[in-house]
Specification:
Distance between the termini: 41 Å
Oligomer: single chain
Radius of gyration: 21 Å
Order of helices and strands: HHHHHHHEHEEHHHHEHHH
Strand content: under 5%
Number of strands: 4
Largest sheet: 2 strands, antiparallel
Structural class: mainly alpha
Helix content: over 70%
């Protein structure tokens, strides 16, 4: 241990607590989101210890949790830039449709994956053009695109799904949704994407530009930041993430359904707000969104394990979101902006 000989002994004793408090203050949203998650899991464990002291229960949750993590991480960029994207759930469906159609036509599944991700990126470009370059409201535009893409899927498929079980014994399936021990492989993909999101948002200039644009677009322009391009890139990032999720979703279920992605919208939005992203532009945390995804990902399983019916799920979602926002309001200066 290195001791600062110049500092008085009393100051040496108080320096570490001060640094810890400064660090806690800097990451206040993340700390409050993490504390909320820990308390929630503690309550679930007390209510049903036989379930949550069994590692297989976590494995079951980890099958679908990566989808929430990937979408929540990408959506933080759009929300922090001062916009919103309500179309990503349908873009997941479009990407899944593209993948399934080309796979059924006999194309290489890895190439089909690339095409699905590109399809998501194209959807993101369309959103970006309409919002950033045409100046339309992102709330209304992406809501409209959500209906547009979902309708497009229904028209192409006539409302019918297709089985993709023939992919299950392939190496492609194992690479993306296989299992290593008790850990589903998709958790590793989610961890990699989350790491990318944290690096981009916290350490790369793109993340800084997103925060500047969301906080004050006019000041960002004066600093030489291309505000339109930054917003466009944020929407494209969500589109690319949605494309990848679309493939994961159908590989997990071994089927394509025209409704794939439908249930993700409110859960992912809940994850980013529970995680400490304020929704006012310029303020957000990717790490907090990851914690928020864990929080909403465990709620339904925790409710069922506690002996309650699934009818309680939405009620508990509402309670969790409101309580977490109240916590952020009390302890985060950003929510008083």
């Amino acid at each position: 241990m290195i001791i600062d000989q110049k500092a008085p002994p009393q100051e040496q004793l108080t320096r570490r607590p001060r640094r810890a408090m400064s660090l806690l203050s800097q990451y206040r949203e993340l700390a409050s989101a993490l504390a909320f998650f820990v308390l929630m899991m503690l309550a679930f464990t007390i209510a049903s210890p036989s379930v949550w002291l069994n590692s297989l229960s976590y494995t079951a949750v980890f099958i679908s949790l990566p989808i929430y993590i990937i979408l929540a991480v990408s959506l933080v960029f759009v929300v922090v830039s001062g916009e919103i994207d309500l179309s990503f759930a349908s873009v997941v469906g479009v990407a899944a449709l593209v993948f399934s159609e080309f796979v059924l036509a006999g194309w290489n599944p890895y190439l089909c994956l690339v095409l699905a991700i590109l399809a998501g990126g194209v959807a993101g470009i369309i959103n970006g053009i309409l919002v950033a370059y045409f100046g339309l409201s992102s709330l209304i535009v992406t809501l409209g695109m959500n209906f547009f893409w979902r309708g497009f899927i229904q028209i192409i498929t006539n409302g019918t799904g297709v089985p993709l079980a023939f992919l299950q014994p392939t190496s492609f399936h194992n690479v993306f949704v296989g299992q290593i021990g008790i850990i589903p492989v998709q958790m590793l993909w989610a961890a990699g994407f989350a790491t990318l999101g944290v690096v981009l948002f916290t350490y790369h200039k793109f993340g800084a530009y997103v925060r500047f644009v969301g906080d004050n677009p006019e000041s960002a322009r004066e600093m030489g930041i291309n505000v339109r391009l930054v917003k466009m890139a944020s929407f494209v990032f969500v589109g690319l993430a949605s494309g990848f999720v679309g493939v994961l979703a159908i590989l997990i279920n071994n089927n394509f359904y025209p409704t794939v992605g439908d249930g993700y919208l409110l859960i992912v939005l809940a994850a980013i707000f529970v995680g400490g992203t304020a929704g006012i532009g310029g303020v957000g945390t990717v790490a907090g969104a990851i914690v928020g995804a864990f929080t909403v990902g465990f709620i339904e399983s925790g409710i069922v394990a506690a002996g309650l019916t699934g009818y309680w799920t939405q009620f508990i979602y509402g309670v969790v979101i409101v309580l977490s926002l109240v916590t952020h309001r009390l302890y985060s200066p950003h929510y008083k902006k």
